[in-house]
Write a sequence for this structure.
């Protein structure tokens, strides 16, 4: 099972890398979102995939029985999903605002902070 | 009924003493105050006082933790009463507390400067709240003893720095923020990938536990690749060559207080993470990591120096000076001897102070001249001789010239490189310093000695700027003078800092103490 999941993770990484190589900021956003999901799946896979026995000590036992599902990667993924969602929504709004006021979603044309020929850095306030 | 023997293997049965909570004060203090300050939205005086209060708590917490670590060795506390590898541990050693103290001090100085630079609208948008949260994230990164927790603190830093960067919403800021946001998001995601894979190999996330598991692991090939992934992730964070392009694209766009806090603290958090990971998780570099450190560091020093000569904007020039300093720190980590580590920690403290001071004084000069373009600034020495003296002192400090604090760490770095037989590194360090003299010195000569704009003939004096109000200038100059005096005193009495940096370097090479304190058994 880990083998197939590893291939799937690699595939998503490849797709997101391809998306992030684009000059269009929209594709960049989608690439970042895919990357976040690939990482979550990666953490899930490296925690070893086992049958769905919950990690609870049964009555009368002094420790875990073997073959339980690993709870730690799930806690990590949950944290990563929450953080990833917050940052993704920020980046989405940032992209929209940048498109609104800069009039482009092409990263090559975003040259206000680093002008190509005009060597000016005027005080903006 | 649970077996008490089993519980005492995983849970701590002794109560937590009051003194042990000290390690959380620098994080929880500003966090609580930040939450309170959200309630006073729009009341700028109260928010300012709260920010000052929160930073003072963090400063007091880090000072008392400093003495705790100085007298009693590394301090550790694991959350929720778990015993170390099971719960999230916070461990502070000498390196953490030195970085934490300087970070609190710098934030305090920047908050003192803020009323002269930040409008009411900015305060309403949450400037002070976000500065406090940024400080929480920075302290968390310095104190944490858990690699996934380090990732979480990096995200705390990231989201508050995004907020600070776009405060005001100018076109130039949105442009800079797009580049800053995506590359830094990518950097932390790479860090998360590396953490996930490291967990897959070792089955643990605790630094102290990782120290033992990585040393025992036979997956040396995978670990070597992982060490390079960490180098890449934190290389993006600390703006090392060739991952630095986002920094000069973004750091000159926000308000100068934001630039100062970013320039002083954020890159150093990346450097701290590199020091931590490569002293405890990969202490022998696992392959070629340390050689890559020196090579990247050398290139960063040279690129930063050359960039600082090429720039025409004051703030962008400072961004490249900052990059050059990061390169110096990378070289120190790469040499990896106790002397080099001592120099690295001392240089980090020096760089945090001086870069903040330079950004703040750039704010004063920019306001006077109405421009950050070096060719449009002039006559500073005639109009404000005191400002000129402060710039001159901070410039000497960042170049590494006496009598300021930059001399000693560079001297020790050169000595460490000689002792290690890396003669080419000595050449790089000296050439890098020379290039910085070119950048900062040229800007200083033009802005301070020339009478006015770039075409002003010799001997004439026609400054184009406006005079600052006395009151505003005083507020702005106070933190700068404090930094000036600190860097001067650290240059005259270097042994004061060296003794603590020496202890910190000792902690980094004597990891057993850190491990025993986190995992127990001391």
């Amino acid at each position: 099972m880990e083998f197939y999941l590893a291939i799937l993770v690699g595939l998503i990484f490849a797709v997101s890398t391809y998306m992030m190589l684009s000059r269009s900021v929209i594709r960049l956003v989608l690439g970042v979102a895919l990357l976040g999901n690939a990482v979550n799946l990666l953490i899930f896979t490296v925690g070893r995939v086992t049958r769905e026995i919950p990690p609870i000590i049964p009555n009368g036992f002094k420790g875990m029985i073997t073959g339980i599902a690993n709870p730690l990667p799930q806690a990590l993924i949950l944290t990563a999903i929450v953080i990833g969602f917050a940052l993704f929504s920020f980046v989405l709004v940032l992209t929209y605002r940048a498109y609104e006021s800069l009039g482009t979603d092409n990263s090559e044309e975003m040259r206000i902070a680093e002008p190509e020929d005009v060597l000016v850095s005027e005080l903006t306030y | 009924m649970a077996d008490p023997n089993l519980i005492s293997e995983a849970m701590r049965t002794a109560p937590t003493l009051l003194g042990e909570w000290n390690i959380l004060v620098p994080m929880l203090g500003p966090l609580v105050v930040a939450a309170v300050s959200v309630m006073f939205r729009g009341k700028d005086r109260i928010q300012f006082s709260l920010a000052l209060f929160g930073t003072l708590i963090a400063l007091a917490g880090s000072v008392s933790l400093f003495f705790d670590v100085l007298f009693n060795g590394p301090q550790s506390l694991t959350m929720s009463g778990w015993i170390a590898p099971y719960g999230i541990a916070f461990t502070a050693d000498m390196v953490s507390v030195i970085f934490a103290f300087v970070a609190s001090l710098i934030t305090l100085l920047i908050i003192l400067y803020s009323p002269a630079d930040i409008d009411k609208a900015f305060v309403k948008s949450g400037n002070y709240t976000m500065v406090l949260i940024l400080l929480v994230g920075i302290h968390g990164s310095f104190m944490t003893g858990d690699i996934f927790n380090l990732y979480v603190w990096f995200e705390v830093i990231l989201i508050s720095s995004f907020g600070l960067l776009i405060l005001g919403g100018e076109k130039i800021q949105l442009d800079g923020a797009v580049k800053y946001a995506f590359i830094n998001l990518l950097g932390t995601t790479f860090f998360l990938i590396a953490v996930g894979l490291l967990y897959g190999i070792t089955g643990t996330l605790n630094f102290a536990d990782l120290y033992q598991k990585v040393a025992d692991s036979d997956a040396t090939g995978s670990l070597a690749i992982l060490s390079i992934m960490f180098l890449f992730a934190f290389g993006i964070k600390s703006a090392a060559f060739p991952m630095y392009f986002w920094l000069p694209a973004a750091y000159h766009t926000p308000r100068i207080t934001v630039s100062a806090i970013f320039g002083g603290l954020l890159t150093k958090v990346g450097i701290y993470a590199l020091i931590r990971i490569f002293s405890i998780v990969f202490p022998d570099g696992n392959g070629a990591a340390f050689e890559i450190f020196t090579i990247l560091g050398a290139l960063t020093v040279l690129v930063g120096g050359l960039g600082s000569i090429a720039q025409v904007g004051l703030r962008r020039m400072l961004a490249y000076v900052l990059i050059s300093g990061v390169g110096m720190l990378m070289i120190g980590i790469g040499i990896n001897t106790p002397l080099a580590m001592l120099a690295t920690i001392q240089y980090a403290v020096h760089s945090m102070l001086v870069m903040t001071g330079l950004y703040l004084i750039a704010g004063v000069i920019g306001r006077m001249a109405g421009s950050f373009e070096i060719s449009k600034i002039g006559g500073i020495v005639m109009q404000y001789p005191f400002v000129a003296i402060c710039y001159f002192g901070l410039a000497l400090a960042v170049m590494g010239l006496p009598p300021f604090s930059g001399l000693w760490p560079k001297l020790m770095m050169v000595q460490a490189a000689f002792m290690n037989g890396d003669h080419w590194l000595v050449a790089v360090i000296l050439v890098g310093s020379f290039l910085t003299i070119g950048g900062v010195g040229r800007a200083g000569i033009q802005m301070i000695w020339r009478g006015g704009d770039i075409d002003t003939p010799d001997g004439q004096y026609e400054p184009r700027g406006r005079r600052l109000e006395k009151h505003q200038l005083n507020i702005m100059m106070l933190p700068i003078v404090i930094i000036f005096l600190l860097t001067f005193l650290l240059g005259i009495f270097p042994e004061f800092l060296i003794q603590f940096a020496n202890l910190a370097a000792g902690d980094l090479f004597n990891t057993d103490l850190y491990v025993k304190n986190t995992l127990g058994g001391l």
Q: What stands out?
A: Confidence is low (pLDDT under 50) at residues 121-125 of chain A. The longest helix of chain A spans residues 71-102. Chain A has one domain: 2-109.
